[in-house]
Design brief:
The structure holds 2 protein chains of 2 kinds. By secondary structure, chain A is α/β, with parallel strands linked by helices. Helix content of chain A is 41%, strand content 22%. In chain A, the strands form 3 sheets. Chain A has a 6-stranded antiparallel sheet. Chain A has a 6-stranded mixed sheet with strand order 8-12-13-3-14-15, sandwiched between helices. Chain A has a 3-stranded antiparallel sheet with strand order 9-10-11. By secondary structure, chain B is an alpha/beta fold. Chain B is globular. Classes of the chains: A alpha/beta, B alpha/beta.
């Protein structure tokens, strides 16, 4: 079926609706973060292009900013690795004009005390999960292709980070799920009887259903947008984003009696339906989990599937059959869908942190991505590049040069 | 090993006491008048000799049965099940409970090697045979405490005439809604009651 905007009247599929405003990063202050000894700068409202050779610290700067969104490194580095060589403590601070007015978000980590401290408006936050997502930013990085190409755990990690940002209670449900799972696996290894296993299953099902319901709802809600962005960047080829729960999806709630495309597929299953399906799956796998000594079904085994038309043929799994360029396209479409999710949650445009993303794209894809980042999107942009490029965003960004952890404007 | 070293090593075994603190405590004891240090050592001797688990409820006490089990004014038909003897102090402080206790001596936690056989459950079942009306499961609202409560609930639910309840979770009294964390507020919503 040829893709046309009119076939998908929903705002998700026809590009984002203009947001009423945008999150604006103002002053950024770093101390002993990666290769920055001290850095203080004031970002222009539209954003900035940061030029610098390899090792100058471009990605480190984006890593520092995004640290204030998730309070960990988006590159998977440990907090200790973020402390500048030979130092004990790093600190990152930024002022943000966002949905909750102007706020100062700060995070510090002490390697000696192994302690992380997060402050909002100079007031220490006792639970990290309450401060998470307070910035409102999305990172596009060259490593994103690993989400599509790499192991399933990377795809679960993507869903978990995003849902932690936008879904109240998700972080806590996930944390609890992990604790119950490791207790339950230990009980299985020790040959615990059925009554004991069921005591752990009860908790596993309760929080596991919460996790799966949120994941399924997100994927169902963003599949059309993903398809749209994918076909735009690829120049026509449709892309399908699918949630593959390890226990098989329960039946969705009854669809409304209408021909409307959205309701024809039915609404995603309720949390209770997920709980019931999880309970049945645990029952089904009782023998297998006992033999193997681990819980074999549940959200810890979930998958996210990316399929697309490859070479005009039928849809195929991009992880196995996609070329590097096709995998990259899917990763970009995924980040754009993430940006839409954040916009909806924040009620305004998130900050776009673009880490050298145009480098590995051909001219056509690069141009189409640029278009997508401009159409209806007014968010502040921090774009890094090793050399001056023709990329023009937001009517031409200011250019800053970064050398050995110092800015030269 | 010198006497001082010996003392530092022993103090260092205490929970929450590292080597540095153990040293500080040891030298502090050396500087205090000998009478005071002896008082501490006698107090330790006494608890070791005189405090035992109550044979009825498992509470730590210097009498058996303990002061709660032997108190005729308390309602022996309502049983509050707690993880540790120290939890009793917390419940007592509320002044709100006049039943009796049952101490499990821990909670289910396979990662710490704790299974049902390591908990004081057999004695609980024996007690329930004699005229108990209600069992309040007051294990902690942690992952392990919840699993322990679930396990006990399944074990006890078929007992005739015994009501099984679980402590409510929600907002701390005197706290500001604004400063409560998301999870606590969510729990409070789930557990809201009619007015």
């Amino acid at each position: 079926m040829p893709h046309s905007a009119s076939a998908h009247p929903s705002p998700q599929a026809s590009g984002p609706e203009p947001a009423t405003g945008a999150v604006r990063l103002g002053r950024i202050r770093l101390r002993d973060f990666r290769n920055f000894e001290r850095l203080e700068c004031e970002l222009p409202a539209e954003g900035v292009m940061i030029l610098g050779s390899n090792g100058a610290g471009k990605t480190n700067l984006l890593e520092a900013v995004y640290y204030l969104e998730v309070f960990r490194s988006f590159r998977g580095a440990s907090d200790r690795e973020l402390v500048r060589f030979g130092q004990e403590v790093f600190r990152v601070e930024a002022t943000v004009e966002g949905p909750r007015g102007e706020r100062t978000i700060a995070a510090a980590y002490s390697a000696a005390e192994r302690r992380k401290q997060v402050e909002v408006d100079r007031r220490e936050v006792s639970r990290l999960s309450d401060a998470i997502g307070g910035l409102g930013a999305v990172v596009f990085s060259l490593e994103d292709v690993e989400i599509v190409r790499g192991s399933p755990s990377g795809r679960r990690r993507f869903m978990d980070i995003l849902l932690s940002l936008v879904e109240p209670g998700y972080v806590d449900a996930l944390g609890k799920y992990r604790s119950v799972l490791s207790q339950r696996n230990e009980a299985l290894k020790g040959g615990a009887d059925r009554a004991q296993l069921e005591a752990w299953s009860a908790g596993l099902i309760e929080v596991g259903a919460r996790v799966m319901e949120a994941r399924a709802r997100w994927v169902a809600g963003r599949a059309a947008a993903f398809d749209h962005y994918h076909s735009r960047i690829a120049g026509g080829a449709r892309g399908v984003l699918g949630y593959r729960p390890s226990l098989g999806a329960p039946a969705g709630r009854a669809a409304a009696a209408s021909d409307d495309e959205a309701s024809a597929e039915g609404r995603p299953p309720s949390r209770a339906a997920w709980a019931e399906a999880f309970r049945a799956a645990l029952e089904r796998t009782r023998e297998r989990e006992r033999r193997r000594g681990v819980t074999v079904v549940g959200p810890h085994r979930d998958e996210l599937a990316f399929t697309a038309q490859v070479g005009g043929e039928e849809e195929r799994d991009l992880r196995t059959y996609g070329s590097g360029g096709q995998q990259r396209t899917a990763a970009l479409a995924l980040r754009l869908a993430e940006a839409d999710t954040l916009r909806e949650r924040l009620g305004r445009e998130p900050v776009y942190l673009l880490d050298d993303v145009f480098a590995e794209l051909d001219r056509e894809r690069s141009g189409r991505l640029l278009q997508l980042l401009e159409e209806g999107r007014s968010g502040q942009v921090v774009l890094t590049s090793p050399k001056p490029s023709e990329v023009r965003l937001r009517g031409g960004l200011d250019v800053w040069r970064l050398r050995d952890g110092r800015l030269e404007s | 090993m010198s006497a001082i070293e010996d003392l530092i090593t022993e103090l260092g075994r205490l929970p929450g006491v590292g080597r540095k603190t153990a040293q500080r405590l040891a030298y502090h004891l050396l500087k205090t008048p000998p009478g005071e240090a002896r008082q501490l050592s006698r107090a330790i001797d006494r608890v070791v000799d005189e405090v035992h688990a109550c044979s009825t409820c498992g509470n730590l006490s210097d009498s058996d049965p303990c002061e709660f089990c032997s108190d005729a004014r308390r309602d022996g038909a309502v049983l509050c099940v707690v993880e540790e003897a120290s939890d009793i102090t917390a419940v007592e402080k509320s002044g709100h409970f006049d039943g009796v206790y049952h101490v499990l001596g821990g909670r289910l936690s396979p990662l710490d090697g704790m299974g049902p056989d390591d908990l004081n459950i057999t004695a609980l079942l024996t007690r329930l045979r004699g005229g108990v009306r209600e069992v309040i499961l007051a294990t902690n609202p942690s992952v392990e405490g919840e699993a322990t409560a679930t396990y006990l609930h399944r074990l006890l639910r078929d007992l005739e005439g015994v009501r099984i309840t679980r402590l409510a979770r929600g907002l701390p009294v005197g706290g500001d809604l604004e400063y409560a964390d998301g999870v606590t507020i969510a729990e409070a919503f789930t557990g809201r009651r009619d007015m």
